[in-house]
Design the sequence.
């Protein structure tokens, strides 16, 4: 269970649900599942991770929880379903929410046992509940690969509904919720700031461990331990990327077993989270404490590209436009350094997007309700949070450099939420000298 200070206030969850319902058809019901843990092997499950759309609408972080939202005849009905108290089960798996606690967190008055979910939904779809009116449209949150019951995937569940109610129109709830998630409230921004602060402190601790002869995983373990000290054991935003030397030229380097060597650079892509809100930071450090030669030239180019994005990120632009500007910036820099002969050869050294949305997921999802708008073409608005992560990767020279900050879009431009995490060469070298 998360600390009360890591939660959004109950009235904000209610506001989100109302904003969602305002976008849905009348005579409809929306269904969202919290999910269940997936099987890892034999009788072992992966750690449970709640569906972030469900969590965004309810604040409930508990397996096998469900949400029904009815909008019929202009009237709104909300129902939350959670597992009932079971003294024997709690001896095995720990504390579960009472109905009163679930009501307090979510601001939903109707909290019922999960066993009542099917009968209530079935009665509404059959028109047997006059209070809920006639339901003609069902919105189902098609969160990818979600497990909704012990032996039932979301896809299986949808097939059963379509078979049982052939005249029922089934729409995808996922794009409606992910659109709402793009704009962060002040409380969400505060949680992101706290996650970034914890990440900063953990990075500083990790930098102290950089030395020739250390293993990459030793640095990754140092970061994980310290960030959990700072965020109350709320975990990592994603599996830490800790890559030295040639390994840093692999974008999502998965196996931090390498040995740090004199003259290497170490690329860290990492983050801690608070209340599920994710920090996503990249920094690059010289093992011997000093940037030298080509390393320094390339680092300065990536840093300048990072600052260029900060100068351009503002309402009205798009991630696509920021990417085009970054490609042009890096290509011109590579030409000046004599590393490419023509601009289009930048692709040999820079091959990913400069930005994505950040929030309850490290890569906060976006899906167009019409299905035809890519996240990179979404017009940026105040309250959105995006990454800023240019990089250069020269495997033949055993160099990989990425500098990533988290930017909050404001009315007039952007604020770098991670500006206190050192990235200027003098500051980085001074940090390592300590």
Sequence:
């Amino acid at each position: 269970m998360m600390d009360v200070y890591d939660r959004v206030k109950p009235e904000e969850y209610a506001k989100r649900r109302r904003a969602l319902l305002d976008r849905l058809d009348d005579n409809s019901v929306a269904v969202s599942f919290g999910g269940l843990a997936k099987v890892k092997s034999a009788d072992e499950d992966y750690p449970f991770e709640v569906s972030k759309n469900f969590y965004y609408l309810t604040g409930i972080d508990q397996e096998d929880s469900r949400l029904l939202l009815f909008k019929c005849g202009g009237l709104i009905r909300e129902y939350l379903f959670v597992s009932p108290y079971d003294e024997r089960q709690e001896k095995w798996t720990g504390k579960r929410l009472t109905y009163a606690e679930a009501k307090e967190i979510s601001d939903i008055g109707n909290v019922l046992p999960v066993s009542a979910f099917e009968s209530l939904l079935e009665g509404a779809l059959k028109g047997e509940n006059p209070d809920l009116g006639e339901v003609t449209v069902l919105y189902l949150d098609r969160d990818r690969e979600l497990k909704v019951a012990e032996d039932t995937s979301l896809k299986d569940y949808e097939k059963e509904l379509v078979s049982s109610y052939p005249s029922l129109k089934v729409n995808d709830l996922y794009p409606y919720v992910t659109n709402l998630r793009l704009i962060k409230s002040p409380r969400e921004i505060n949680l992101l700031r706290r996650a970034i602060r914890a990440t900063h402190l953990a990075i500083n601790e990790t930098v102290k461990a950089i030395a020739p002869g250390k293993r990459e995983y030793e640095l990754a373990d140092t970061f994980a331990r310290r960030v959990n000290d700072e965020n109350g054991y709320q975990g990592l935003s994603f599996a830490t990327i800790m890559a030295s030397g040639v390994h840093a030229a692999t974008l999502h380097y998965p196996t931090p077993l390498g040995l740090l060597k004199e003259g290497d650079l170490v690329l860290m892509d990492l983050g801690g989270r608070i209340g599920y809100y994710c920090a996503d930071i990249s920094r690059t450090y010289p093992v011997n404490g000093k940037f030298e030669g080509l390393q320094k030239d390339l680092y300065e180019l990536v840093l300048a590209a990072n600052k260029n994005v900060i100068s351009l990120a503002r309402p009205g632009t798009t991630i696509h436009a920021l990417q085009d500007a970054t490609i042009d910036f890096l290509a011109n820099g590579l030409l000046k350094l004599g590393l490419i002969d023509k601009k289009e050869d930048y692709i040999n050294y820079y091959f990913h997007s400069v930005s994505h949305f950040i929030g309850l997921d490290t890569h906060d999802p976006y899906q167009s309700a019409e299905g035809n708008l890519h996240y990179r073409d979404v017009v940026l608005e105040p309250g959105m949070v995006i990454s800023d992560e240019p990089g250069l990767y020269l495997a033949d020279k055993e160099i990989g450099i990425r500098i990533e900050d988290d930017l909050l879009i404001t009315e007039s431009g952007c604020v770098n939420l991670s500006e206190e995490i050192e990235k200027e060469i003098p500051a980085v070298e001074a940090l390592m000298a300590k």
